Amino acid sequence: MNVHSYVDIFMCASSCKDKHEAIQSATLKLLAEKGFHGFSIKQVATEAGVAAGTIYLYFKDKDALISDLHFMLVESVAQATFIDHDSSLPIRQQYQKICANIWQHCLSNEAMTLCKAQFDHLPVDILQTAYSNLWGNQFLPLAKLYEQGRQQGLFKPLPNDVLCSFSLEPIINLAGQQIIGLINITDNQLKSIFNASWEAISISSDNLTQEVTHDTH
Length: 217
Description:
Layout: H1 3-34, H2 41-48, H3 52-58, H4 62-81, H5 91-108, H6 110-114, H7 116-119, H8 124-131, H9 140-151, H10 160-167, H11 169-179, H12 187-201, H13 205-216
């Protein structure tokens, strides 16, 4: 294989990657604007600047395109969540950093954040596949944090999905409201929100006292 062949292969790979990303970006934009059933493959092609037939070279149908986009977004959120993550820090400090990372990522990726409700209603089989190894892969650092908190008696003895629903999901939902202008959260309020998020899953000394008192009666 000569030098020109290597260049051709590189250019083709680069072009394919660019088209794939353009299709994903176009789908995300339309999804945020119109919802799952409000756009067609033809509209994705127009938004992405490619022929409709090109999309079918990458995805067999619209469901496959949505599933691929969902996987990409999960990867993106996971990477952003654990920026500068340091497991040697106290659990609460680690948690505060994770909250701050998620908040910033949501505000910096408006279309992604506004699409969250759409992705929560994906077909069950797609969701099951997407989340089958979530805690053992992309969100392993958070799984370890939750487990460490449970072992130390800091967190309620609940599954990871439940802890996440009470602690981090509300932050994402609030970010969506901030984006569309329903609320305007200040820096001081944000700190209080992170504290409330912690308190939602933590076992306070008051709660421990009440549980002990209840057990003795």
